[in-house]
Specification:
- The structure is a single chain.
- This protein is mainly beta.
- A 6-stranded antiparallel β-sheet has the order 5-6-7-8-32-31, with no helix packed on it. Strands 1-26-25-24-23 form a 5-stranded antiparallel β-sheet, with no helix packed on it. It has a 4-stranded antiparallel β-sheet with strand order 4-3-2-27, with no helix packed on it.
């Protein structure tokens, strides 16, 4: 079967330039997918945590649920490309992000991380409701989080153009070539009404020391609770690139993952929208890269373009700690998973002092490959603590999902076909008992055959492979890749009954878009559409 021509992601925007390939020791750190490696379940044991694993396949319209014995027990097909995050709800329904085309941030499905729409669908794929959030200035992207009250948190880009950026204190020398800047916001919406009920914006919490005439002028090192609008490593329009969100109901706090800053942030959710615009909405905690707030250098850095920070749930080993997939990059070409305990004072407030790198300086637990370079996904990926103390890890670019015990021993491992990327995999062990989990469905893959390569300035490009066209997608200006495209690649055979046919998937998709009801309302915000 031949590979489709669609690209996996236009990834140059989300991977920063930080030195030459030579600085990494030469060569291509991401590697070329091995078409001969095993596909399917490769390692299992009696130490595996029970449950079913939900997979968000990059450049796919479909979501897959996998059993521990390697069977595909359910597939949710959709009309849109996935917008990255997917979750299972307690009722067995799927909560998913999907990519829309009507925004200024790139065509749906092509950039991968832009979504703009959230849907809840039943176990058999019927639409319960859909919520759109995207126009020419704002659009949802990457991640969402379902709250205990049924509301949903959504990460969104917010575009500022030209003089708007300069008026916030951005140095003209640091303006992106597009003369605009993508800031970030978090919204909370109620699916029952289509209303946005809470909002937090980065733009309300800036600091800068460029223009003393502006109200946000100040010494950056003295304000670790605020975000330096002039901190940038490559003048990208995608200045922050928040790729994950998680919520702690006990603390009523949110953790965010601004990838280009190589740190995590915690903010207070226990505010009104109006309060969130002021000091109450400032950062409660930040950790990973003190250079972002001028409190340290590379020697104090812990995170490298991280993904998927999350609080470990109550009742699990390490409960209350933060687990983070530490991707690595040009400065450190290997990945790790770290568990940290944020320092707090006697009142329970996070310890964050001006001019001092925020702690901790060490980890409660860490996983690194042996050798370190054997475990490396500079993009996407994640980690999830299991009830038995194991950790489920997604090595996203390799399509590898594996589980390690506390000693770091691999007790379970599964590979998707070569060039099939996984945004994130999470296991669920509390599914409703009436669901049919006995099936063994055909394996789903993405719609592109692609692999990653670095250019001479360490930007990341994606090779798009088809029988008739071969080209590279890179951030401007495109650079000649160091890794030359080889001949046509072949898929490794599936161990799950073969790949689904295009015709079957197209026909099924057309049947699955009829919602349970057809009421539509216009939501009172930019570009929003509510369906139920």
């Amino acid at each position: 079967m031949k590979w489709f021509l669609r690209g996996l992601i236009c990834l140059a925007i989300i991977v920063v330039s930080a030195g030459s390939v030579a600085a990494q020791g030469g060569g291509n750190p991401f590697g070329r997918p091995d078409p001969n490696r095993p596909v399917g379940l490769t390692i299992t044991s009696d130490q595996v945590s029970p449950g079913y694993i939900l997979l968000s396949i990059i450049q796919s319209r479909d979501v897959m649920l996998l059993s521990n014995d390697g069977r595909v027990v359910n597939i949710w097909e959709g009309a849109y490309y996935l917008g990255q995050a997917v979750y299972l709800l307690d009722n067995g329904h799927l909560l998913r992000t999907v990519s829309l085309d009507n925004n200024a941030y790139g065509p749906g499905g092509q950039w991968g991380f832009v979504n703009g729409r959230v849907e809840e669908v039943t176990w058999d794929g019927r639409l319960v409701w859909g919520f759109n959030y995207g126009d020419q200035r704002i659009v949802g992207h990457h991640d969402i989080e379902s709250l205990p009250n049924g509301h949903v948190l959504m990460v969104a880009f917010e575009m500022f153009i030209g003089d708007e950026v300069l008026a916030a204190g951005r140095s003209p020398e640091l303006m992106p070539q597009e003369n605009a800047l993508w800031s970030e916001k978090v919204i909370e919406f109620d699916p029952a009404t289509g209303q946005i009920v809470w909002e937090w914006r980065v733009w309300d919490h800036l600091v800068q020391d460029y223009d003393p005439n502006l109200s946000n002028y100040g010494a950056v090192a003295e304000h670790p609770e605020r975000i330096d609008i002039n901190y940038t490593i490559d003048r990208s329009i995608d200045w922050l690139h928040i790729n994950a969100i998680d919520y702690n109901a006990d603390l009523d706090q949110i953790v965010l993952s601004p990838r280009t800053f190589s740190e995590i942030w915690i903010i207070d959710h226990g505010t009104t929208t109006e309060e969130a615009r002021g000091p109450a909405g400032d950062l409660l905690y930040r950790w990973g890269n003190p250079a972002a707030y001028r409190a340290g250098g590379e020697e104090n850095r812990h995170l490298y373009y991280q993904h998927n920070p999350q609080w470990i749930p109550q009742g699990y080993p390490g409960a209350g700690h933060l687990l983070i997939f530490n991707n690595g990059g040009p400065e450190r070409p290997y990945s790790s998973v770290v568990e940290i305990v944020p320092p707090v004072d006697e009142s329970g407030a996070y310890v964050m002092l001006p001019g001092v790198p925020t702690g901790p300086d060490s980890y409660a637990w860490q996983y690194i490959g042996n050798p370190p370079e054997s475990f490396y996904s500079p993009l996407i990926s994640g980690a999830q603590r299991q009830p038995n103390g194991n950790t489920l890890i997604t090595e996203g670019l390799k399509g590898r999902i594996f589980e390690v015990n506390p000693a770091g021993e691999i007790v379970w491992e599964y590979y998707l076909p070569p060039a099939t990327g996984v945004f994130r995999a999470e296991r669920y062990n509390n599914l409703p008992p009436d669901l049919d989990l006995s099936r063994n469905l055909p394996l789903v893959t993405g719609r592109s055959g692609a692999w990653i390569a670095t250019t001479a300035n360490s930007r990341v490009c994606m090779h798009i492979c088809s029988p008739t066209r071969r080209r590279w997608r890179c951030s401007p200006p495109p650079m000649e890749p160091r890794l030359r495209p080889p001949g046509k690649m072949k898929r490794a055979p599936s161990t799950a009954g073969g790949l689904t046919s295009r015709r079957h998937r197209r026909d099924r998709r057309a049947k699955l878009q009829k919602p349970l009801a057809t009421t539509e309302k216009t939501a009172p915000h930019e570009g929003g559409l509510w369906e139920t």
